[in-house]
Amino acid sequence: MALIASTPRLVTVFGGSGFVGRHIVRALAKRGYLVRVACRRPDLAGHLQPLGNVGQIQPIQANLRYRWSIERALDGADYAINCVGILHEGGRQRFSSVQAFGAQAIAEVCRANGISMTQISAIGADAQSQSEYARSKAAGVAAVLDAVPDAVILRPSIVFGPEDSFFNRFAEMARFSPVLPLIGGGTTKFQPVYVGDVAEVAARAADGKIAGGASYDLGGPQVLTFRECMETMLEVIERKRWLVSVPWPVARLQASVLEMLPNPLLTTDQLKQLAVDNVVSEAAIRDGRTLQGLGIRPQSLEAILPTYLWRFRRTGQYSTGTVTH
Q1: HSE of 236 in the Cβ direction (CA atoms, 13 Å)?
Q2: Which end of the chain is more exposed for a tag (fewer CB within 10 A), N or C?
Q3: How far, rounded to the nearest angstrom, does the alpha carbon of residue 133 sit from its chain's CA centroid?
Q4: Tens place of pLDDT for every residue, the chain, 325 residues?
C-alpha cells in the first residue's frame, strides 16, 4: 500500500523489539513505512527484519538514560512511538527512570526536532495511585504532553497476544500445578485487548488519522474478572484446575518473597495494581476515545487465545475437546 505524500516516511519505534513493539513495527511495515527500531540490544532484534522488506526495518542501539542515543535514533525521523516499559523493577531498571524520565527524554528530543509522537501508557496510569508503576506511567504521560502537546496517548488494558506475559504465564503454570491462585478472590475487572488492535491504533496515529493531544483507552469487547480470565484460559487449553482464592494479606506475604527472584511471578507493586479495576473509563466511551470510537472492531479472547495457547494442551493443536486434569 503506497503512502500519500503528506504522511511521514520514517518512524522510530522505541522498545520496538518487545511484545507490543514488534506488532507496531509489523503494522507500520505493512503500510510501507521505513521503521527504525530503537532498543538496548539490536543484536537480539533480528526477529523483526522478516516483518518487512529488505532494508525496511532497521534496529539501532538506544538507551533512554543517554540523550545522545535518543537524538541519534530520531535523526531524520518523521514520527516517534514510545512503547518502552517494564512490569517490575530489577537492577538498574527502575519505574521512574524507564517510564517517566525515559518518556520525558524522548519527548524533549522530539520537541527540539519538530517530531510528533505516540506514547504507549496504560489504563491504570494514575498520579494518585498506590502503585509506583502506575504513578511512573502517569508521570511519563504528563512529561510527553508538556513537551509535545499534540502527542497521542494510548492507554491499553491488559494486552494479550502470542508473546504476552499474562495468559502464557498462567497457562504454563496450569501445566504443572493443580491449583491457580486468585488474588483477592479474583474479583478485579479487566478488559483484555488484542495486541494487534493496539498496534493498529498506533499505526493510524503515525498516519495522522488520530487527533493528538488526547488519551485513548483501549479495551477489548468484554469486561472480565480475574477469575473469568482464568476460566477462559483453562477452557482454551482444555485443562481443569482448582481456582483458589488468596486473601490480600497472604498475597502480600507471598509477593514480598517472590519479588526477590530475578523474574518474579508477583510483586507487592503488582498487588497494588490488582486492587483496582483495569477497564475503559466512562469518559473515554462518551467521547469516542476507544477502539470502537475509532472505528476498530476489537478482537475477542475466544477468537485469539486458541491461536497461540494450543501448545499448552496435552494434545497440542490436535484438540480433543476434552477437559483434562
Answers
A1: 24
A2: N
A3: 13
A4: 444 445 549 999 999 999 999 999 999 999 999 999 999 999 989 999 999 999 999 999 999 999 999 999 999 999 999 999 998 888 778 999 999 999 999 999 999 999 999 999 999 999 999 999 999 999 999 999 999 999 999 999 999 999 999 999 999 999 999 999 999 999 999 999 999 999 999 999 999 999 999 999 999 999 999 999 999 999 999 999 999 999 999 999 999 999 988 888 899 999 999 999 999 999 999 999 999 999 999 999 999 999 999 999 998 777 666 666 6
Say what the alpha-carbon torsion angle 269, 272, 274, 275 is, to the nearest 10 degrees.
Answer: 170
Count other Cβ atoms within 10 Å, centred on residue 254: 17
Domains along the sequence of the chain with CATH:
10-159+193-219+279-298 (3.40.50.720)
Q: Which three cell numbers stand for residue 263?
A: 523474574
Which residues make Cβ contacts (< 8 Å) with residue 122, sequence separation at least 6?
85, 134, 137, 155, 156, 157
Cα(218)–Cα(173) distance, integer angstroms:
28
CA atoms within 13 A on the CB side of 145: 15
Task: Please tell me the distance from the alpha carbon of residue 99 to that of residue 107, in angstroms, as a whole number.
Answer: 12
- Angstrom distance (rounded) from CA 223 to CA 227: 12
For residues 243 and 180, give the distance between their C-alpha atoms in angstroms, rounded to a whole number.
Answer: 5
Q: Which long-range contacts (CB under 8 A, 24 or more apart) does 52-57 make?
A: 52/25, 52/26, 53/29, 56/29, 57/25, 57/29
Place of cell 486468585: 182
Q: How far is Cα 230 from Cα 240, in angstroms, rounded to an integer?
A: 11
